[in-house]
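Two proteins follow. First one:
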Amino acid sequence: MAYDYRLNSDYFQRVLKRLLLIIIFFLAYQIVNNLELEFYVSSFLKIFIIAVIIQNVFRIVSRTLIYLYLRAKNLPFDLEDLFIVGMKHIFNVIKVIIIFFVSLNILQIDFSTFFTSMALVGVAMAILFKDFISNMLNGMYLFFSDKFNLKQYVEINGVRGVITDISFQTIEMKNDSGDYVYIPNSTIQTKEIVNFSRESLKQIEIELSLLRDEMPLIKSIEKEVKKKLQKEYEELLSKKDENPIVLEYIEISSKEVSFKFKIKTSKYSFAIERRIKQFTYHVIGELLIKYHKSEKSKFIEMEEKNLKQY
């Protein structure tokens, strides 16, 4: 699909407004520079004015680069992908660093003296904030990797959900319950990541447990789930596999049996997985209700027989 990349009037208006602000604050800087103010008052005003100028310059540059990126990739203007989010975060860091150095210059602080005195403090800070630095480096790696993107459904360290945001420190996810979970970026180096939104991964897994006295139901559950899923979601099930729905046992203990359904689909999305899971749980729930009703009626019959014997 091709998108219209002509710069619209709204874009030009925003750029012109920012250029106008840059000119106004540049003139304000000249005025402050010529006024005979106290050193710290003058310095504070200059730092504030330059910070506003830098902010607006970076906004123009970032918007232009994002435009060029979207155009090169043939992506829609309203897209907010990981590369764009990462670029914004990195621009913010560069912006702060520039403002910091400019502030040192305005305050007439010698760079070599300042950094020499801060060297030992820097080493101590690096040791104290090693996790912070590790998360930040991993965050920068994530911004430019292709492991996953925003709005994709993934599993990280056993947590499943949709990625809503990534910062220098954490990955923000919205799990299946609607809760927001924050995972440190350093986790990606040591934990397994599964991206269910990738085209190559089109398998849904549904884990279940039954009590030992409910074990006779497993064959009926397998048969009923396969039959009803094939009838209800025939267009979503994989046509490449002869048996797109498979039941596998996970664990059998003295109290319960754990098993899972592996369902291969022709396409995948979080919404599709949710629909299929809810449907499967509904089918199994109905079977369990029927089973327990029949067991209860059998128990009542046995009790009535026992009472008659007395």
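Second one, unrelated to the first:
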Amino acid sequence: MDTTQGSRLDRLFVGKEGAGERVDRFLARKLGISRNAVHHLLRAGAVQVGGERVAPARRLRPGEEVEVRWAGPDLLPTPCPIPILYEDETLVVVNKPRGLPVHPAGKESRPTVVTALLARGPLAGGPANRPGVVHRLDAAVSGALVLARTEEAHRSLVQQFRERKVLKEYLAVVKGEVEADEGEIRGRVGRDPHEPWRMAVQSAGKEAVTKFVVLARKEGQSLVLVRPLTGRTHQIRLHLRAIGHPVVGDHLYGRGEGPLLLHSWRLGFVHPSGGDWREFQAPPPREFCAWLAELDNTNLLRTGQPLPPSTPPTRGE
């Protein structure tokens, strides 16, 4: 491996075991990535044999050296298990595991959603250090997340999020038994002037609106279905704390212990190429199972409650 000017160059020697093998199969085996991801590298001209670009079906000879130049050290495909809820040639929806960051930050080398998906195929749109990213979940938050595979899909999805036409629903276990069965929380959200690594509900912040309905209460806690109508950083965590019910496990805003019990349960949007409305549900982590088992059935999260709509949301709902 050689790194120069923010890029990485891998040189792979072809031995007897690789003789006669197609270059795409050779790279998929050696790098541990999908054939689709290899084809993306080949199309981008990132792969050379003997100083020349090659076709996927090119057969390798013993003693040859295959060079792969990655776009940057932080965006190397890093195969790791990540549940796929849906994927096609334009986008991919995943159930992000708790603790997995969405994209690399700084010089971190740990896997992220972006680098895991790059091992399956291309992502497109947005800054080079976070391709395909349309929206984000905190590393500590699990659940449904969509990323774009094409520039067109990225533009469409970003616009839908910007215009508040995307359905976002979360499950949260909060401290205390919430008295109201449902409600709406309004509180402007901005960066904390005293602790800039945190956000705060403050008059100088941006408009933020969150709706909620209580699904269950027990032993001094409540299971809440939450729909943020705006998309401010840490909005749900701040708003629930503002009404006296911080999310269980919130180390940043609630002095919590253990995992953060906040999960992106349902995500809906208009498919960028098909034009039809799609909704995706992400099975929650095991900490939610006992709560859901006590409900009559999980369809309560889709019907009979004030929040789930029968039509796509519109701006200002």
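SUMMARY FIELD: The chain has six helices and 16 strands. The first helix runs from residue 23 to 31.
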